[in-house]
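User: Structure with arginine, tokens only please.
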Amino acid sequence: MKSKTIKSFLLFLALTFVMIAAACGQSQTSTTEEAPANEPAEQEPAAKKKLLVGTDAAYPPFENIEAGEIVGFDVDLITAVMEQAGYEFEIQHTGWEPLFQMVTNGSVDVGISAITITEDRQKTYDFSTPYFEASQMILVPEGSDVKNYQDLKDKVIGVQNGTTGDFKAQELLGEKSTDIKKYETTPLAIMAMINGESEAVIADNVVVQEYVANNPDAKVVAIEDPDSFESEYYGLMFKKGNDSLREELSTAVQTVIDNGKYAEIYKQWFGYEPDIEKLKQ
Ligand code: ARG
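Assistant:
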């Protein structure tokens, strides 16, 4: 009787041990089983396609090549937008006119290049919510008699081909006027004016002001004409119909504007706070 009790006690101990061991084993297996099941969920953002962004990096302070790298307000902004939307991306210098073709044929996914959202461009491209307010400005050599846009009527005007500055020159002198000298980049248009090929350049205000500030020896003057130059708004540009990407990045643009990241980048590049109310049309 006594040995029976010991035996059953031993059996009880043995069973308990087996059960504890089994429980430990099970909990171990279940953690190891869960780990791989969790991995894909954690890595999901990395599964998004890496995006290609195109720009004409000859437009400081928006985009420029410095020490072999593309830098500028647009670059910092698109970096914040992509981070917000959870995309990796690569930015490429495409040039201005090729950028439009490359967005159309899909060799880049997005264009960011101080691109003004115009009615005409909206026929062929889709744009994000506006991220910058700009207007045209006139650049002339010191001593010029040009005081406003109308004064350019009998002048030779230099522009970057296919920009809103070009369109303003066409509006004044006629689409086919030979008095409009067209260049591949804005810095080339400005250099040509300084060399006497034209008498004025029309380009985006911030770019013109940046040029004047950085080139005190160039002897050029910037002229504003708010009555002739209406507000323009820059947007990210997409191939028409790419609605889901446009919506995702457009929402991200709005988020970085609303959460203060935009103001931070803006202040770094322009030295003062943006008026984000102006972006709400
Ligand atoms: N905002 C003007 C336009 O859309 C000029 C932009 C030129 N941008 C550049 N990166 N070159 O026509």
